[in-house]
Amino acid sequence: MQLDYIDKINEFGDNIVRLYDFDSSQANKFQQLIKQTIVINKKPLDLSTVDFIQARNCNLILRISDEDTGIVRTGKQKFFCDLTSEGYEHMVSLLEPFCKKETKGYQWLYDIDSQTDFLFSPGGTW
Predict the structure, then answer these.
(1) Beta-strand relationship, 45-46 and 59-64
(2) What angle do CA 94, 50, 16 make, to 5 degrees?
(3) Which stretches of 21-110 are assigned E, i.e. beta strand?
(4) Residues 80, 70: contact at Cβ < 8 Å?
(5) pTM to 2 decimals?
(6) Separation CA 126–CA 121 (nearest Å)
(7) Which residues contact residue 124 at a Cβ distance below 8 angstroms, ignoring those fewer than 6 apart?
(8) In this structure, are strands 15-20 and 2-6 parallel, antiparallel, or unpaired?
(9) What is the C-alpha separation between 101 and 32, in angstroms, rounded?
(10) CATH code of the domain occupying 2-121
(11) What are the boundaries of each domain within the chain?
(12) Residue spans of alpha helices (H) in 49-126
């Protein structure tokens, strides 16, 4: 599984942080990691410390917030994803189809009006 950042993907200046290049077993591991670390234990999850994720040009830390604000950039390569517990529970459910079988589809992991979206895509496309 690879993690990267792509800026200015459209004429509106939107950006994406994407997780891509994975199979259903890695999708399942990622889903379980979110469920255990964030939803159950209420701890932040630094994706650069996950052994099956290769961070290419950015680092993303998932953390619980009082409101769903999505991904914010705090440095050249440092990003935080701020969602409520319910937002992460919803993310876990969005990952479910990728855990059951191999697919070429993709999923935006939240629906928030923000400058940076979070893409989950085995093939890296959207």
Answers:
(1) antiparallel
(2) 50
(3) 45-46, 54-55, 59-64, 70-73, 78-83, 107-108
(4) no
(5) 0.94
(6) 7
(7) 2, 18, 20, 21
(8) antiparallel
(9) 16
(10) 3.30.1360
(11) 2-121
(12) 85-100
pLDDT by residue for the chain (126 residues), tens only, comes to: 999 999 999 999 899 999 999 999 999 999 999 999 999 999 999 999 999 999 999 999 999 999 999 999 998 899 999 999 999 999 999 999 999 999 889 999 999 999 999 999 999 999
Residue where the block lists tokens 């670390």 = 37
For the chain, how big is the Rg over CA atoms in Å? 13
Q: Identify the pLDDT of residue 104.
A: 87
Three-state DSSP at 1 gives: coil
Say how many residues make up the chain: 126
* C-alpha distances in Å from residue 92, one per residue of 11, 12, 78, 88, 89: 30, 29, 23, 6, 5
